[in-house]
Acetyl-coenzyme A synthetase
Amino acid sequence: MTDAASQLFPPPPEFVAKARLDAAGYKRMYEASVSDPDAFWGEQGKALLDWIRPFTKVKNTSFKGDVAIKWYEDGQLNVAANCLDRHVATRGNQTAIIWEGDDPTQSKHVTYRELFEQVCRFANALKARGVKKGDRVTLYLPMIVEAAVAMLACARIGAVHSIVFGGFSPDSLKDRILDCDSTVLVTADEGVRGGKAIPLKANADKALESCPDVSTVFVVKRTGANVPMKAGRDISYEDSVAAASTDCPPEAMGAEDPLFILYTSGSTGKPKGVLHTTAGYLVWATMTFQYVFDYRDKEIYWCTADVGWVTGHSYIVYGPLASGATTLMFEGVPNYPSVSRFWEVVDKHNVSIFYTAPTAIRALMRDGDAPVKKTSRKSLRLLGSVGEPINPEAWLWYHNVVGDGRCPIVDTWWQTETGGHMITPLPGAITTKPGSATVPFFGVQPQLVDADGKVLDGATDGNLCIIDSWPGQARTVFRDHKRFIETYFSTYPGKYFTGDGCRRDEDGYYWITGRVDDVINVSGHRMGTAEVESALVAHAKVAEAAVVGFPHDLKGQGIYAYVTLNAGEQPTDALRKELVAWVRTQIGPIATPDHIQWAPGLPKTRSGKIMRRILRKIAADEHDQLGDVSTLADPAVVTDLVENRQNRA
Ligand code: WTA
């Protein structure tokens, strides 16, 4: 453990004085949540949400056999009504969304009433194109207010949205549209990030060449670029909302009706459509938002994620809006036009709560303190971190430089599948340690197990499982419940396995150490090594590929690919560049390999299984710690790989 990690940061007394919960309060609520989940979550469900028909049942869940997870199952409600309608009467003129453009001269405020009207109009526009309850609508949008409008419009009429991050390639978009049989796409002419245009409509057109069932494409005008519109299929978003009425009653949704699908990467195969449902998800997003960020009425809250990831779903849109908060949506990037941008935005809009990813903090830290210190940041009260382990040095810089030593940090561990925060400090209650996500949120029961599933007690390292259900949990993989069970509940039967390794210290604090499966985390973006491998082998000159992550100073992990070429192909630098470009077009720029090593052979067991442990060690430049290689079919392969490794320190 580094010295930084052993420092303790108790909540500042002035923070505790005003906080929602102190240490005793956390303990009391946590105990109540696990000793009587029905009573605890019943009360929370009533307190946090408005119901069309109240629930009478609370928890009905099993992690065994067929794995069935239901919360509030006989209740009815509407997510958009909870995010908008109930606030219009009391805070109609309050800003719901502050939009800050990529260009610092562009920003706007949208009130709850305005957002409500926009959502109703677009919901009617969707209906006019035949969208009904249960239909899937794919969103491929930049960070503009219309993204939130489209999400809420789907929720209002019971359509299921599937957001595809704007950085994904046409191929990735196509796969996701086809997997969920979506017939409607919402996109924009172009996106804008860091002063550059992203050709979203052109990408969408390419994807749609292989999606004959898509019959409607709404195109939002973001830059005004001249994009081709296919007659009968493509329609202007602006024209269709202008023609639509603002009267659109919310659909009564069952608590367990689907709210959204979000594709995420796993150890094997293509990304899977993680499905979240209505009531439990919203309870979780709302409650974690309020307690973890200690949100106070009228505060300005800013999460820098993209709506294409789960963080954007739960903590830009659903949690904040259900809470009646003012949420800031940022179109740009941390270093444009300068590396002070984040802090300038904080000052411009008086942001109190700021939530970002360690990769951004590490990148900004590299530019030193001056770009931060020239801004005021006096509005900041709380800082948050998400997406990957935060190294203690970055934590301390975030605390001391960005937060002037004043603001508690909440390091929130969670996943697409968990719907919201799972292990995190509550800022008025929990003493933090740099690099630790600390303690479980209400209702979360972590357990560490060894490779054989033996439960480990006390201070130890292990694989992180959660032993009972919580309301925000994903219910299934869209149309593939078998894969859901296999992925999450079969490694350690009867438990949800997170895929993460974790250490618990003598104080019972949790320290996430990173994925123990073949998922990697590159700049906070989750990716399956199998996806990058299948992109590589789809190239005509590649025979075989194995991809692993390696430690990377800025990105957390980088992508290291071992490639075996087809017989007769020459391993040239030009081909290396070609393969890098190929992966970018197959998946998207986030999957760009950092290193490609030509591998005449890959280390395999006699049964043909690639020994990734060895490849990870070589990529990490730890080839002196390869361990036992005697079970390899051809140990000589390893010597070649070590000699030709790319990533020498
Ligand atoms: C990692 C993002 C350490 C972890 C919300 C997890 C973290 C994966 C943290 C999920 C954190 C997320 N500390 N690791 N605070 N937050 N992770 O689905 O490996 O994109 O399994 O969800 O990110 O990534 P996902």
About this structure: The longest strand covers residues 542-552.
